[in-house]
């Protein structure tokens, strides 16, 4: 970063000839800089920023794939959207999914990280096992879960029956389907959160625990409350927001296992967007759903940066 | 001496809790392997047993490979993820070098755009990118699977942060030797950045091997299917009630990444938690 200014600064002292060559080098280097960033900048425009502007623009049109004409229709898509029961169901289900999966995956991730870190034996074995679901292709594991939740021959109902408890048609019953998807979501996200918490725990200075002990914090809980929890503040915020954004994007398990059913009980935003945009090809309407989704995701990011600023005071 | 007793108790409690949790985490994997090893009659019995009375893994695998062209789908996965990664590096590394080590007008603005780009979730741009590919007649091709991901703003950000830590002396020495700026990227910076490139590579390959949303949108042809699409189709069309072959197919699809992960856990965990920064 600073090398350019340094060489130019150093070149001011010697004679004009060296100065000119350095400047020539400098300008040639500027040209190279533009050459180096051009492919990235162009692709960014075509594949990222352009489409982002495009999706917002599309949401104000009645564009349909294959239709010969389209026109600006202002806020009509949004009016239709807000008048559509399916949209509100999808939004409610998405929020319910987020509200269940985020605390579930964050608390479990933290608990596992604390347990692993509280001893020294078998640390990496446990870490590997808990991380395995993060690695495994979610679609393949969703199919496995579906069979585990099979009403007659599944492992879950088999064990429930064995314990004398009632069995359920998990994914076929509108009162349980969303919760079953939440369970899969938590199962998949826990290991990821655990690893982030482990990194946070390792970076807490040992002296803090010693100091807390001298001050009378002898129980494990007191040490957690006085040292671990405040020191993990920034990491926790981060994990909560990341989990929130990822949960908002839930799609894979819904599409392969329930298609939003039974009777829309697992319909979620991105699935509605997919159905409207890529099955019915109502691009404008699907774009409006995307914009609503974007607003929520950016809101979460905003909350993160706000809290992260505050989190700095702890450390 | 007085606290000799509580320590083993706490250690035992730690293992009990962690093993119980681990059993929950591993249950789907164990059930998958167990079911893939059972003949049809044992799968459809109401009595639960983990170890098959009669091993049928080979039959189920053969059945799965006969019903779906799994090798082709795995190959597609390799072609797509490797192409994406190579192109991402070719685009991101020069830009990251320029952002980290060169001065030019618009640098700060470009970096701000990179940071902004990281916030955009992939689903947000799906409709316009799909329409562009449709206009260009590129839908249902490898290009449709690869092109939208050639730009990784996250990769640019990551490599730029890494290049910042490379000493300027190294770059200056290379310039003294008459190496061009372009040459510096590939002959000086890339070798210095191998750990960061590896981590990014794992992140990228895992993300795109497992991606379902985008291939689902742009693909139609059977012979182009990526592994996740293949499992979904197998479940919808082929499997019906034959869970043995379905579980065997799921095993085949997750095997490459899981095996790679078991061999290089530390690197994989590093690479994937990079998404945390996203």
UniProtKB/TrEMBL annotation, chain A:
UniProt keyword list: Cell membrane, Membrane, Transmembrane, Transmembrane helix, Transport
First-listed, main subcellular location of the protein, grouped into a coarse class: membrane
Annotated transmembrane regions: 33-60, 95-116, 128-148, 178-205, 226-245, 283-303
Keyword Metal-binding appears in the UniProt entry: no
Superkingdom of source: Bacteria
Membrane topology: Multi-pass membrane protein
Pfam family, one: BPD_transp_1
Localization of this protein: Cell membrane
Domain ABC transmembrane type-1: 91-304
Methyltransferase as UniProt keyword: no
PANTHER family: ABC TRANSPORTER PERMEASE PROTEIN, INNER MEMBRANE ABC TRANSPORTER PERMEASE PROTEIN YCJO
Family: Belongs to the binding-protein-dependent transport system permease family.
Protein name, UniProt field: Sugar ABC transporter permease
Originating species: Bradyrhizobium diversitatis
Organism lineage: Bacteria, Pseudomonadati, Pseudomonadota, Alphaproteobacteria, Hyphomicrobiales
UniProtKB/TrEMBL annotation, chain B:
Listed CDD domains: TM_PBP2 (cd06261)
PROSITE patterns in UniProt: ABC_TM1 (PS50928)
Transmembrane portions of the chain: 12-33, 73-97, 109-130, 142-163, 184-209, 243-264
Record's subcellular location: Cell membrane
Gene3D superfamilies tied to this protein: MetI-like
Domain ABC transmembrane type-1: 74-264
Keyword list, A-Z: Cell membrane, Membrane, Transmembrane, Transmembrane helix, Transport
One Pfam match: BPD_transp_1
Family of the protein in this entry: Belongs to the binding-protein-dependent transport system permease family.
Protein name: Carbohydrate ABC transporter permease
